[in-house]
Amino acid sequence: MIWTIIGIILLIWLLGFLFEIAGGLIHILLVIALIVFIVKMIRK
């Protein structure tokens, strides 16, 4: 599940770079996803 979410966010982030759509929001979501991923890896 987490890999699906990470994949979707990365795809949206890349599309945001290509088309410059909602740049700030995409970066915030990417940082949140990265933090969640790191916390899940530490807790395992």
Automatic annotation (TrEMBL):
Source taxonomy: Bacteria, Bacillati, Bacillota, Bacilli, Bacillales
Record key words, sorted: Membrane, Transmembrane, Transmembrane helix
Matches recorded under InterPro entries: Lmo0937-like
Pfam families documented for this protein: DUF5670
Organism the protein comes from: Saliterribacillus persicus
Protein name as annotated: Lmo0937 family membrane protein
Ranges that cross the membrane: 6-39
Superkingdom field: Bacteria
